[in-house]
User: Fold this.
Amino acid sequence: KQEVTQIPAALSVPEGENLVLNCSFTDSAIYNLQWFRQDPGKGLTSLLLIQSSQREQTSGRLNASLDKSSGRSTLYIAASQPGDSATYLCAVSGSARQLTFGSGTQLTVLP
Amino acid sequence: SAVISQKPSRDICQRGTSLTIQCQVDSQVTMMFWYRQQPGQSLTLIATANQGSEATYESGFVIDKFPISRPNLTFSTLTVSNMSPEDSSIYLCGGGLSSGNTIYFGEGSWLTVV
Assistant:
């Protein structure tokens, strides 16, 4: 059974810092990996999707990497802003496209 | 991309009653999923909603408790039956287009059972 772990569970940084969120998964036979953002009281916003054949994806200040063989992904956020404060969720997909989620990293960016 | 709308967005329900949550997508999606997010927890897959046939349930979830319908490629419903306080959660609908692999989610339905 696939298990997804996210470290750290919570992170607090001053505005302007670059930061890295970590995600690991136990079964490397994934179809793709997706990073989401969840604001308090809201649903999920898709940030980036990395196909299993890809190594990284970039969108604006966000860069996600994937090392499928070691079961790891990182989400890099450059020049963090208070508006980046949210919970970030990593999820991996099998061939049936169901997502298995990690428990999330709660990010607080202090002004 | 796909925009997913859920109704109700929030509700307070009496123990023992049932509530049906609706999920409407603005595009035809090949895959639709229902997830539950209990307070302080991550998302757990309840079932995959299959068009015109019975949903595929994950271990620990049964049709009698969580009946699901999906009459077409843009709409699905999840009913939470005979609710107890343990059913207080956010219920999220997710969908995937045939043209890509991204799964999109709605804003969720926040249920509190008293």
The two ends of chain A are 41 Å apart (CA to CA). The mean pLDDT of chain A is 95. The first strand of chain A starts at residue 4 and ends at 7. Residues 19 and 46 of chain A are 19 Å apart (CA to CA).
